[in-house]
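note to self — DONT lose this again. spent like an hour looking for the file last time. sequence + predicted structure for the chain T wanted, 361 res
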Amino acid sequence: MNCVPISLGDRSYEMQIGSGILKEMLGDITDRAMFVVDDKVMPLLGDKITVGSGQGLLTMFASEMNKTMPSVEKIWDAMLDAGLDRSSSLVAIGGGIVGDVGGFAAATYMRGVPLIQVPTTLLAMVDASIGGKTGVNTKRSRNDGTAILGKNLAGAFWQPKKVIADVQMLQSLDTRQLRCGLAECVKHAMLGNAELLTFIETNASAILACDLEVLERLVFQSASIKAKVVSRDEREGGERALLNLGHTFAHAMEPMPELGLLHGEAVSIGLVAAASCSEALGMVSDGFVDRIRALLAKLGLPIRMQAELPALDFISMMQFDKKNQDGQMRLVLPEGECGATISSNVDLATITLALRSVGAS
């Protein structure tokens, strides 16, 4: 088993990564607790989860449409019905959606209860479960007046007391879900981690075949990158914003029903758009964008939208991004061979060009 430390003073914790560790780890949870479980994961847990006296269980249908305040209220109500108080824990078992909603419920129930994250998807293991970001989507309107969800526009920073990642659970994922997590791994590699980029390129076939040894190394390396950044910048006051590479574009694409994109798929296209932006600005070397496109395509991830929508629709959504300051759009863009920077002076013509490079009209 590997352990990744997240060093945050009195809020420090460890991420425990291994194969076949879930039953023992969940069995150690004997305190009063509410288990919030992805309903697709529940049948896979078998005897790994036992709800004891003073504990409760709530299953959740994990979708972006369900990642809203009513789902948080259901968790609050279930905890109240179970008689749980401020000393009780909330255990979130599932992908990033369950982790985000369960985490926000933990952050706000009786002004905060201990949280244990048990990610069961690759995306959640390498990204969503680490760092304490929680959140739900809120309603927004598009230029044509139709309703759309604004991604993670309400939330809180609430660090878990531990994270348990059992890579055996990844063997139960369908290929599409597994690939979604790989987009976040590529993002971490693009943040100055050339060794990880080469590891993914070299081991792409073994990763997609769910080789447990390779997956454990991948999760450990990728999670370690995020953990180090979070340890230096817990509340995204500076360096941590770089972890949003590609996400300003992705969060504008993901809610568009015409595109039918999962989060990791939107991130993949967003990484290409961000790299294209950098190319237009002369921030990356010749061939960098092609290398990123080739790797993402090798992993089976989309590098272009399949439906043409106006670039202005995406730009309107991007203006609500949480990184923006004083009305200025701030983009995280690749820089150099393997690095990134935050830029607030990218003109709309360049952003439009980047969006058109991934299929916008």
